[in-house]
Design the sequence.
């Protein structure tokens, strides 16, 4: 019996033109992401990574094209699928004037979790993210790395099946970054699909598969080894430069 | 192709949830509670505004300096025998009138003093004043004159001086002459300047503060990026909007209670009508403005822009909503504009309930308009959220 490949995210000819500015932020994106995969969406600032994530997670309506998440059409079924996805945006997007616990509890309520569901999951996340001592601390008094972890805790509280980490490892110290990747692996082992964006090319080496984005389009896709072999390059950055043919696109 | 596994994806969190709505509401209250500046704004501003508007801008004029030159002589009429000396009666009444502060002196010096701004009026009672009055009563004379040299630059002061003189003449003549008998409407109630001022202050405070607090709450959510984050959760727009409204209204409820308690118990303002109807009206009016704030927040990118909306809305409202000038006194072409200014209906409601003792029967139209405003701004707010996602 053939092994059935299960795609949890599929986009077809996805286009987003913002009304203001008339820029094609995403220009015919075709993505297929498998269950339990760590997929890195790599590209410079303004290449359309965040816009793509926002459309897939149902926060932004596409101009044209199709999106399917777990086989459900988005944005049509966005409210259903949002129960199974978690998003940690690029800017921390948490409430500065509330404590770490109040932030995470707030998001748990938004996901319809009860107190008895919240408590064990929260304690578990605090331990994993090494935030146990900061439970009652106001977010504005946390360091950048801790805010990032708080944001991640908010996106994981409801045990989602897909998580989107937008530039989660950017500006994070190397020890924490290693820790993040270890944690991403453990999530993967639990069957969670991870989509991670970054504008740091070499970051992507640790992903299962990479999608290189440029000007709203996917210019290359594959596992790091596959891509390097195919383009005869030693780093992802080299591939990116080769494919861009030296052309500079200003954001 | 992806195979749907229906059993794995339960259709949870799809319907409107009060739990999520309350989560937003409590979060909003928590945040407002911790914001010292906003708390100060919410508690101090209503009282300061009430003091300023209630005491200073009520149209009540006090202690206006005037100069009186009384030359009137006692007149004794031979037949029929009448003896009359009105001058001292007039000056005595004026001296007891708190709206004017009387000095005595020469009329022509008084004119100079009015021109220089030392007095607002110089009053001249001629030597034959009492004689002329008697002759008018006997039919030998048709008109009686006294003279007032008056500063017309302040219409309210001018009206108040003339009113004081009218009252003085009225009391000096006693039972003689023409009487205007006033019968006070609305249960014969007399109102102080503060009584009259408080209803519009309540309406104004609700508009001004709820717009600011509403705008700040929502614009902060936008700046922090949490608004976009909430778009990728099961939270509905209607839950989010209602949550804000409930949260802000609970705070507003305390604020309105503060205004009412302060106004009624400290300043002794009258409430002729039903207190519960008053609270209901205040809440309905508040809800309309929180929805309006949610809608307006679409046009503000940061807190500064949000705060700029408040004077932009408040100042025209004051001018056109009947707070400073009664709507009937506005130019005819401007009056229709008053009927789209929300403050108009707020003042109608609060004045109707507090001063006139009206109930729902008399105020149904104003209630309907305010309820309509709630619906309109709710729909606009939801629509603009949807269009934001389609941007």
Sequence:
């Amino acid at each position: 019996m053939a092994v059935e490949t299960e795609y949890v995210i599929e986009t077809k000819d996805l286009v987003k033109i913002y009304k203001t500015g008339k820029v094609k932020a995403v220009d015919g994106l075709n993505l297929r992401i498998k269950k339990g995969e760590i997929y890195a969406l790599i590209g410079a600032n303004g290449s359309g990574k965040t816009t793509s994530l926002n459309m897939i997670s149902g926060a932004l309506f596409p101009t044209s094209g199709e999106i399917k998440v777990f086989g459900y059409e988005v944005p049509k079924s966005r409210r259903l699928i949002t129960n199974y996805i978690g998003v940690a945006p690029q800017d921390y997007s948490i409430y500065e004037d509330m404590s770490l616990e109040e932030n995470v509890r707030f998001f748990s309520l938004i996901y319809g979790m009860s107190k008895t569901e919240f408590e064990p999951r929260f304690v578990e996340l605090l331990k994993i993210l090494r935030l146990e001592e900061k439970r009652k601390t106001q977010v504005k008094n946390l360091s950048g790395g801790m805010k990032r972890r708080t944001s991640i805790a908010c996106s994981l509280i409801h045990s989602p099946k897909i998580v989107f980490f937008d530039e989660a490892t950017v500006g994070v110290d190397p020890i924490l970054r290693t820790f993040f990747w270890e944690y991403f692996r453990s999530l993967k082992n639990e069957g969670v699909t991870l989509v991670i964006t970054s504008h740091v090319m070499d970051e992507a080496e640790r992903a299962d598969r990479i999608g290189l984005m440029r000007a709203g389009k996917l210019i290359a896709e594959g596992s790091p080894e596959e891509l390097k072999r195919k383009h005869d390059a030693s780093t992802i950055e080299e591939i990116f430069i080769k494919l861009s043919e030296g052309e500079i696109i200003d954001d | 192709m992806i195979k749907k596994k229906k059993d794995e994806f339960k259709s949870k969190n799809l319907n409107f949830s009060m739990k999520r709505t309350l989560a937003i509401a409590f979060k909003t209250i928590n945040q407002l509670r911790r914001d010292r500046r906003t708390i100060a704004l919410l508690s101090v501003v209503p009282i300061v505004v009430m003091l300023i508007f209630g005491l200073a801008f009520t149209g009540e004029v006090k202690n206006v300096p005037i100069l009186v030159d009384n030359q009137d002589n006692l007149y004794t009429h031979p037949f029929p025998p009448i003896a009359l000396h009105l001058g001292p009666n007039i000056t005595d009444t004026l001296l007891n009138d708190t709206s004017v502060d009387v000095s005595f002196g020469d009329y022509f010096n008084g004119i100079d003093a009015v021109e220089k701004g030392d007095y607002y009026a110089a009053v001249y009672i001629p030597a034959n004043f009492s004689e002329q009055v008697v002759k008018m009563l006997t039919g030998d004379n048709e008109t009686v004159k006294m003279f007032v040299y008056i500063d017309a630059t302040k219409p309210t002061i001018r009206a108040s001086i003339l009113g004081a003189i009218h009252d003085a003449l009225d009391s000096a003549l006693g039972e003689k002459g023409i009487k205007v008998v006033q019968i006070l409407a609305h249960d014969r109630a007399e109102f102080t300047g503060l009584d009259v001022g408080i209803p519009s202050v309540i309406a104004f405070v609700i508009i001004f503060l709820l717009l600011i607090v509403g705008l700040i709450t929502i614009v902060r959510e936008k700046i922090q990026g949490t608004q976009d984050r909430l778009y990728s959760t099961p939270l509905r727009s209607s839950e989010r909007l209602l949550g804000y409204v409930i949260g802000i209204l609970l705070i507003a409820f305390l604020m309105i209670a503060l205004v009412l308690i302060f106004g009624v118990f400290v300043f002794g303002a009258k409430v002729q009508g039903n207190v519960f109807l008053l609270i209901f009206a205040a809440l309905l009016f508040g809800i309309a403005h929180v929805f309006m704030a949610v809608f307006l927040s679409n046009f503000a990118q940061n807190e500064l822009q949000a705060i700029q909306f408040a004077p932009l809305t408040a100042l025209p409202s004051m001018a056109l909503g009947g707070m400073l000038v009664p709507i009937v006194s506005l130019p005819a072409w401007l009056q229709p504009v008053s009927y789209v200014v929300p403050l108009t209906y707020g003042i109608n409601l609060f004045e109707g309930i507090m001063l006139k003792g009206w109930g729902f029967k008399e105020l149904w139209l104003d209630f309907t308009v305010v309820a309509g405003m709630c619906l309109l701004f709710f729909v606009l707010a939801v629509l603009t959220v949807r269009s934001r996602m389609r941007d």
Summary: The interface with chain B takes residues 4, 6-8, 10, 18-20, 54, 57-61, 68, 70-72, 75, 79-85, 87, 89, 91-98, 102, 106-107, 109-112, 154 of chain A (CB under 8 Å). Chain A is about 35% helix and 25% strand. Chain A has a mean pLDDT of 89.
